[in-house]
Design a protein that fits this description.
transcription regulation, Bifunctional protein PyrR, EC 2.4.2.9, globular, transferase, transcription, alpha/beta, Rossmann fold, 3-stranded antiparallel sheet
Length: 182
């Protein structure tokens, strides 16, 4: 893919600053860090939740529970849209009474978030649920908005957002792709 097909939205340094800002916003949201639970939505949301968990631990001086929540079987568009293979949901604790932050790299139509909320409620009754995304790219089909957002980037439906994080990727940053990643 040529350089003209990829636009850097956040450099690695900007991404790190954004993660610190988002972690600070999460701290303000939660009454006590003890009841906080970060749940990443596969695939990149899981990695982002881990990074945020480490940042929160550095800011708070104590660990924050982090897990993953796969909403695949709760999607309402499985027949019309190809999906990835389901991943295991990993909950480090009960969701009952917790302040849950669902973490995803991008919010687009809102269907993944809706499915994640449905999947979460199948596991219990949290005190509150918030949505954190690195990028809100618009094109919502459902009335879902992130509570915490790294960057709002209006896109075309044909464009894609790519989050790159260490140590999985050789680089860090957020990129707009004009062709599907491949």
């Amino acid at each position: 893919m040529g350089c003209e097909d990829r636009l850097e939205l956040l450099s690695g340094r900007d991404l790190r600053r954004t993660i610190t800002r988002l972690a600070s916003q999460i701290i303000e949201f939660s009454d006590t860090p003890d009841d906080l639970l970060l749940l990443g939505i596969p695939t990149r949301g899981v990695l982002l939740a881990d990074v945020l968990g480490k940042e929160l631990e550095a800011l708070l001086g104590l660990p924050v529970e982090v897990g993953s929540l796969d909403p695949t079987f709760h999607r309402d568009d499985l027949e019309s849209r190809p999906t990835r293979l389901p991943q295991a949901t990993e909950l480090p604790t009960s969701v009952d009474g917790r302040h849950v932050v669902l973490v995803d790299d991008v919010v687009f139509t809102g269907r993944t978030t809706r499915a994640a909320i449905e999947a979460l409620l199948a596991w219990g009754r949290p005190q509150a649920v918030r949505l954190l995304v690195m990028v809100d790219r618009g094109h919502r089909e459902l009335p879902i908005q992130p509570d915490f957002c790294g960057r709002v980037v209006p896109t075309r439906r044909s464009e894609f957002i790519q989050l790159k994080l260490q140590p999985v990727d050789a680089e860090e940053g957020v990129f707009l792709l004009r062709q599907p990643p491949g």
